[in-house]
Amino acid sequence: MDEIITQVSNVGFPIAITFYLLFRIESKLSDLTNSIHELSNSIGNLNGSK
Predict the structure, then answer these.
(1) How far are the Cα atoms of 13, 14, 23, 36 from residue 42, in angstroms, in the given order?
(2) pLDDT of 4
(3) Helix, strand, coil % in the chain, rounded to nearest 5
């Protein structure tokens, strides 16, 4: 039983940190994707107005 608790405590913390970081990176990637789309649209509007 002690071995199971030790394994959960050794593996549980890194798993929790991994999920936290993945969640943060996902939201930042989403923001970056939206910014790239807005930039693309802005460049398209500049090229279209010539």
Answers:
(1) 44, 42, 29, 10
(2) 78
(3) 95, 0, 5
What pLDDT sits at residue 50?
55
Using only C-alpha atoms, the chain has a radius of gyration, in whole angstroms, of 22
Measured CA to CA, the distance from residue 26 to residue 18 in angstroms comes to 12
CA–CA distance, 16 with 28 (Å, rounded to integer): 19
User: How many residues comprise the chain?
Assistant: 50
The pLDDT tens digits of the residues spanning 3-49 come to: 878 877 888 888 889 889 998 999 899 999 999 999 999 999 988 76
Q: DSSP assignment, residue 49?
A: T
